[in-house]
Specification:
Helix content is 22%, strand content 27%. With 304 residues, it is α/β, with parallel strands linked by helices. The strands form four sheets. Strands 4-5-6-7 form a four-stranded mixed sheet.
Length: 304
C-alpha cells in the first residue's frame, strides 16, 4: 500500500508540468531550493523560477526539485539520498512528509542537512509554516533520541551549513525557585551550546536541568524528569511541548510557578513575547490560559 501511495504521488508530478529544469514559461517568482553537497557537509541554495500557478502545484514543483539531482554534480537532491518519500500531506499550515525506514540509516549530520534543506525550501510557500517528517507514519527522532516534531526555517543555521557542528557561547537568564517554592529567582547562565540546537530549546533544557550546585538558595523550578517533545517559536510565540512529568510537583513548587519559570525564562529571548505550554500536545485543563506572558509578581531576590 505504501508503494502504491508513492507511485500515485510520483504520477502527480509526471502529469504536472512543473519539473525542475524543463523548458517552460516561469511565473516570475523566484524560490530558493536547497541541496546537499556531495561531501554531505553543507547545504547550498540555488534560485528556481517557479512555473506553477496554484498553491498545490507549487508544492509539487518544489518537492520535485528536492527529489531530482541538480545539473551541478557537486550537489545532491535531499530527497534522492537513499530513502523514498511515501506521502506528502498539507494540513493547517503543517506539511507532513512521510519517508520509508531507509531514512533512519542516514548519518546523523547528513540527516540534519536533509531536514534543513527540506524545511528551508518548503517553508517559503506561504501555505507552509511548519514541516514535520515521519518515518512510515511514526514520529522522527534525532541522533540523541529526541522527538524532532514541527520544524521551521528559524531552527536551522542561516548559512551554507558549514557550522553544523560548531558551538556558540550563550548567556541566558533562567528562573529557579526559592526555598519556599512560592517565588522565582533569576539567575544568569553562560554555556556553550550546539548551533544545531535552537536557542529556545536550549533555554528549556537548561531550566529543566536545574540550578548549578555551586549557587546556594536556588532550587529546581521544573520537575527534572520532564522530557522535551518539541520547542518552536513563530511570530513571537514560543510553543513548548512537554511530557506529563511537567505537571508533577517538585520541592513544593506549584504548577503555576513552574509555568512562569518557563515563561519568564523564554521571554528573556529577544524573539519571544509569549509562551504556550502543551503537555503531550494538549493544553492541560489546569492552566488558566492558552498563552502566557511574563509574570514578575512572583519574582524575588536572594536577599529578600
Amino acid at each position: 500500500m505504501k508503494r502504491l501511495v508513492w507511485f500515485i504521488f510520483a504520477a502527480a508530478f509526471l502529469w504536472s508540468l512543473t519539473a525542475c529544469g524543463q523548458e517552460e514559461e516561469e511565473t516570475g517568482e523566484i524560490y530558493q531550493v536547497y541541496y546537499v553537497s556531495n561531501s554531505e557537509t553543507k547545504v547550498e541554495m540555488h534560485p528556481h523560477g517557479m512555473k506553477a500557478d496554484s498553491a498545490e502545484e507549487r508544492l509539487r514543483e518544489l518537492v520535485e526539485c528536492l527529489s531530482r539531482n541538480p545539473e551541478k554534480l557537486e550537489y545532491k537532491a535531499p530527497f534522492s539520498m537513499g530513502f523514498r518519500v511515501l506521502d506528502v500531506k498539507l494540513e493547517k499550515e503543517t506539511l507532513t512528509i512521510d519517508v520509508d525506514a531507509a531514512y533512519k540509516e542516514l548519518p546523523a549530520i547528513t540527516e540534519v542537512l536533509v531536514r534543513a534543506a527540506a524545511v528551508r525550501t518548503l517553508t517559503q510557500l506561504p501555505e507552509v509554516n511548519f514541516v514535520m517528517i515521519t518515518v512510515e507514519g511514526k514520529p522522527l527522532y534525532d541522533s540523541k533520541e529526541r522527538a524532532v516534531g514541527l520544524m521551521n526555517a528559524e531552527q536551522f543555521i542561516d548559512n551554507d551549513g558549514n557550522e553544523i557542528n560548531t558551538y556558540e557561547l550563550a548567556r541566558v537568564r533562567l528562573y529557579f525557585a526559592d526555598e519556599s517554592g512560592a517565588y522565582l529567582i533569576a539567575a544568569d547562565r553562560e554555556k556553550h551550546y550546539s548551533t544545531n540546537t535552537p536557542l529556545d530549546r536550549f533555554v528549556v533544557e537548561e531550566l529543566i536541568a536545574g540550578p548549578s550546585g555551586r549557587v546556594e538558595g536556588l532550587y529546581p523550578s521544573v520537575n527534572p524528569n520532564t522530557k522535551v517533545i518539541n520547542v518552536t517559536t513563530k511570530d513571537g510565540i514560543c510553543y513548548v511541548n512537554l511530557d506529563e512529568n511537567f505537571l508533577s510537583v517538585v520541592n513544593n513548587v506549584s504548577t503555576d510557578v513552574s509555568v512562569f519559570a518557563m515563561v519568564n525564562s523564554l521571554v528573556e529571548l529577544s524573539n519571544v513575547n509569549k509562551v504556550q505550554i502543551l503537555v503531550n500536545g494538549e493544553a492541560p485543563a489546569v492552566f488558566s490560559s492558552n498563552t502566557f506572558e511574563r509574570n514578575l509578581d512572583i519574582v524575588t531576590t536572594m536577599d529578600r
